Amino acid sequence: MTELGQRLRQERESKGLSLEDLQKLTKIQKRYLLGIEEGNYEVMPGKFYVRAFIKQYCEAIGLDTDAIFEEYKSDIPSTQTEDMPQQLSRVRSRKEIPQHTKGVSKAYDYLPTVLVVAGVVVVGIIIWVIAQNIVSDKNKEQANQEAPNSEVQQSNTQEETNETTAKNDNSTSEDDQSAADKKEKEKAEKEKDRKRKS
To answer: What is the pLDDT of residue 129?
Structure first.
């Protein structure tokens, strides 16, 4: 048993708490609490949990955790972050990337945005072209529908013009005929008058 384990057990017992009571307070399994008191940290799931469980144990019995960690530094295992080597992988962080490649990586950062904008523009152009074709087709259909109507109207207008012309020609012919008849009558009357005078 370690000195830390003895101290924690004495404090727990002085408060009148059993391991079961402490388990209910901290939500830490009894076997882990017993492991802390006995200094048997091998039963713990990891070194991080040893420190976390000791902290919860201290808080539950009213001890200052910072003071306990400082006083029993040698009894408490260090966390995994202290044991980790400086470089675990070959992947570099952004801080370690050389300066000459930062401009290239900035371009790659904007690449998805540029591609999305270009895609939107292309889709917009395609929609515009399709809309123009639809409008053009509709205009052609309307022109085709209006063309026979205008031909019918033109032929009706032509017929009306022809009829009017024919009427005018007939009236002109009648006028010409009556004028000719009048002249002949006048000539005939003049001759009659001459014959009477002679």
So the answer is: 95
| Whether residue 114 is found in the same domain as residue 60 | no
Structural domain that includes position 122 = 107-170
The number of C-alpha atoms within 13 Å of 23 and in the hemisphere containing its C-beta is 10
**Cα distances (angstroms) measured from residue 144 to each of 82, 136, 151, 184:** 86, 12, 11, 59
Q: Which tens digit of pLDDT belongs to each residue from 26-55?
A: 899 989 989 888 888 888 888 788 888 888
Tokens 């205008």 belong to residue:
150
**61 and 113 part of one domain:** no
CA distance 112 to 104: 14
> What is the identity of the amino acid at 189?
E
The rounded distance, in Å, linking the Cα atoms of 30 and 23 is 6
Matching residue, tokens 């384990």: 5
In a domain, 95, yes or no: no
Answer left, alpha or beta for residue 84, where phi above 0 means left and psi between -120 and 50 means alpha.
Answer: beta
For the stretch 134-154, what's the b/e string if a residue is b when 16 or more beta carbons lie within 10 angstroms of its beta carbon?
Answer: eeeeeeeeeeeeeeeeeeeee
